[in-house]
Amino acid sequence: MIDLINPLDRDALREQVRTALPFPHFCVDDFLNQSFAEEIYRSFPSYAEAKAVGREFAGVNEKKKIQITDSTKFAPAIARLNSLLASREFVELMSDIFGIPNLIEDPALMGGGIHETDTGGRLDVHVDFNFVEEKKWHRRLNVLIYFNKDWKEEYGGNFEIWDKDVKRCYGSFAPIFNRACVFATSEISFHGVTPLSCPDGIVRRSFATYYYTTEAPPGWNGKVHSTLFKARPEEWMRGSVLMPAENSVKHAKHQLRSVKDKIKSLMGK
How distant, in Å, are the alpha carbons of 2, 34, 167, 212, 244 from that of 105? Predict the structure, then answer.
């Protein structure tokens, strides 16, 4: 199955990852075998079809984006891609390139799977959640593969890599067909997607999968957090007003759920 990926120069990628700033990453084009990539491209659902079976985001930080994590909903070609990225050969390849031993693939695709973003959508700069409490897994690696043909610069939707203070953008990659971007997740791996302004009917499509370890990453301070968003330097209103308001709403909902759970627990006794 690994032969569905075009040959990768391990040594070159290992060196690229080692020297990459501000955190380990690489992006390569023509990642998958061309015919396989074409088959996947033709298999993506429309935005409306994806909305019917997936989860749509409509918040301040993430909106007009649909996520399908249930692999039983994948078309055969996308299911094969999912199996490929979960294969022991591929996981060990990524482990070798990034120097992260004992990587674990995620059958549940938490936060991964099919991603589709419509015009007007966005994903603010953020660092990912770092721990899965139920499994005691530490988040370590993201793999993103894009399936967009004839993508124009004015459409936006670039994958961006930022420093930990979100002051300097170190890389901006258009989500072009068969491009893969892979990066190590950590407390400084801030990344995001620029707002989309593509014509109606054109949707940004990608497939994402994430990897974990049972061992804590070097230097981990023991603090568990969910996804943390930051505004870009020019986004004063978002950083000073919209994001704090969104966080307050999320906190209130979390507190309400906690109270409800406690009441249910007491009633159960």
Answer: 15, 25, 32, 7, 34
